[in-house]
What does this fold into?
Amino acid sequence: MIVVLSGGTGTPKLLQGLKEVISEEEIAVIVNTAEDCWLPHGYFSPDVDTVLYTLSDRINEETWYGIRGDTFATHEALTALGFKEVLKIGDEDRATHIQRGELLRNGKKLSEAIEIQRKALGIKARVFPMSDEMVETRIVTGKKEMSFHEFWIENKGMPNVKNIFFKGIEKARGCKKAVRAIKKAEGIIIGPSNPVSSVLPIISLADTREAMQKKKERCVAVSPIVSGKPVSGPADKFMRAKGLSVSSQGVAELYSELISSIVIHNTDKIPQGIKCLKTNIIMRSLKDKKRLAKYVLRVLEK
Ligand code: GDP
Ligand code: FO1
It folds into this structure.
């Protein structure tokens, strides 16, 4: 089994390739849940939903969130009533949140709710939240502390970021099945996700981290940074706030206790102190994604 650590954009692209080159039953995805929150209609778990919609071939690839072809009747009705819904949520996507919220209110764990939805969507790969407990990303800006969505959507990612931390991370335990999957894995891939907002919460969970440290020789990371810039999103601001250089070197440093090698872009500078492999890591077509997935699997076989 291959375990993949994922956020909601870069790694899902790699998963599209991976599921074409190995059997889906061989894949287990551990997903960041530090951007989760309760909304008036249900439980919002954006990275989990992107992974579920990607694996069931329903993801909207223009945004990397939500369902392709979804309608927005409820969002528009709410707006007409004068209710400001910060996140533009599609009708079908909203159904996922409503069901998940009800399952949680009725006593299911988050991992159990996701398992029900995964099966209903016909997904054969396993999908685990990083934890069954609530962890919340907090961003300390020049002016005030805010949630991820307040920073990224309401403030358009503009404020100066002084720090980013994860409320509840010290006490939270890794999802039991996720930790077990790491222990049993033949290989672990830290996908090209935001190293700070998507991967750091997962690898900061004490039991997850301990299990990964024991598997260091079997773990490879794919850099999300190309030519000193993230391919998309706010990884640069967050890496700087954590004192990391915005480079594959910075990514390798953050993961240093957990990985034996890193895959970086052809044209990038080789990080020091780690086995490094170069290839094209920009995923545009399915061909790119399959090629990169095969490449990463070969690195794990060595
Ligand atoms: P989020 O949850 O939406 O922030 O998504 P992720 O954390 O999974 O992914 C965001 C990261 O994906 C960013 O730091 C991007 O640089 C990276 N990314 C997006 N597309 C690509 C790609 O084609 N190749 C690589 N290597 N990284 C990518
Ligand atoms: N991001 C936005 O920038 N604007 C939106 O209106 C928006 C809606 C949305 C709906 C469902 C969903 O699962 C994600 C959504 N996102 C939206 C993505 C947003 O949650 C972040 O990009 C992710 O949290 C980053 O991981």
In short: The two ends are 16 Å apart (CA to CA). Residues 192 and 223 are 5 Å apart (CA to CA). The longest helix spans residues 286-301.
